[in-house]
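Appendix B: complex inputs.
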Amino acid sequence: MSGYNFAYLDEQTKRMIRRAILKAVAIPGHQIPFGSREMPLPYGWGTGGIQVTASILGPPDVLKVIDQGADDTTNAVSIRRFFARTAGVATTTRTVDATIIQTRHRIPETPLHEGQILVYQVPLPEPMARLEPSRAETTRMHGLQEYGLMHVKLYEDIARYGRVANSYDFPVMVNGRYLMSPSPIPAFDNPKLHMSPALQLFGAGREKRIYAVPPYTAVRSLDFDDHPFRAGRAPGICALCGADDSYLDEVVTDDQGTRMFVCSDTDYCNERAAAAAIQGNAA
Amino acid sequence: MSITHPGFPDPVQDSQACFRAVLDAMARPGQVHTVTALDPPPMLDAATAAVLLTLADADTPIWLDQAAMAARDWITFHCGAPIAAATAATLALALEPVRLDAFPAGTDDAPELSATIILQVAALGRGAAFELSGPGLAAPAILEVDGLPAGFVAEWAANHALFPRGVDVILCAGDRIAALPRTVQIRQAWFGKA
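Resulting structure:
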């Protein structure tokens, strides 16, 4: 596309973001401040993720963009088209074919492999933001590795409700040092953060923070010895592909209250349905 | 001042390719990557010059050791990075052995305010072998480096112990790079044939 630099951002901005990403990888889970730019879409639509993707993207890359697991929602389609136009890169909806996957609030069901980079869109990078509003205070707490506040929050949840009340954005400890928000992915996805073969980068545009989890890094969901972490999913199977191991969306199908469960990861669901069709034809 | 050597033939694509090599090297310590071919100025290897063109600009005060001063004009012209004292440097370029603790290691609250040392060595992939372990590595990996300063392993252990503070190192030799983020632990595996 003429009139823009490759992948929209200017080179000076890319260098600044690239330096932030390198420090983020060297300090797993630590939030690095960066000079977030105004992007041609509003905050909350993935401005942080887009800036990270724009800074790492090159012509050989194959880009996949998902929004809550789906390739075909407005946000995913616009971001995919944005990079197809400004960088001319190949795009895909298949998880296995992608080299960079930008994601809003899900980790694909298909296991990732080395050589892939997962870029998360992050609304609130500070895991303790709802407990301590002052950024200066939480920065100090990270510096001192003082995470008592979060443990008290989890304890109070258990005392009141009998379980930890977070079903998404469930706080994790990275490499045994930093408390980190995994972005609002369902707690069901948390185990996939641990020892992932893929590099995971997190970009928060409005909050101007970048952080990272390198491949093969320990990521532990916070819990207690007598209340171990449990990843929940809706009790049901996908109505389209029959998966009983994937994260499900509940869809209301009429005004009589009829509902169905379907995989939130559309690529996983389509691949399974296609494989089943081939098997059905062969039989 | 005369600048006889060019920068990247294609600044946008070449710096992107070089950055991905550095990123992958930083994310998977010990892996050796090859960077874009480039006609480097005297004293610098192609990889060293490429990493500078990729990371250095007016926002990165850079410290140069005595030997690297030969490339000072080239760096000023192509990167625009101001020359700084070791204690105020964001980037450091060393062609000869340096002490890691001479550079900023960041603070507990802002460990990212630490220097990245670009260390040019004789060779990567041969020489003394080091066993690396830590984040980024599923199993301990071997990195062979010819030309690391004597006592580097002990200095690195002190640097690693500062975590989350500490410096990060990018090793460059010829057209190859490898990286040592502060999280990595290094053990001397065996000594190379000089």
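Residues 11-188 of chain B form a domain with the Rossmann fold fold (CATH 3.40.50.11310).
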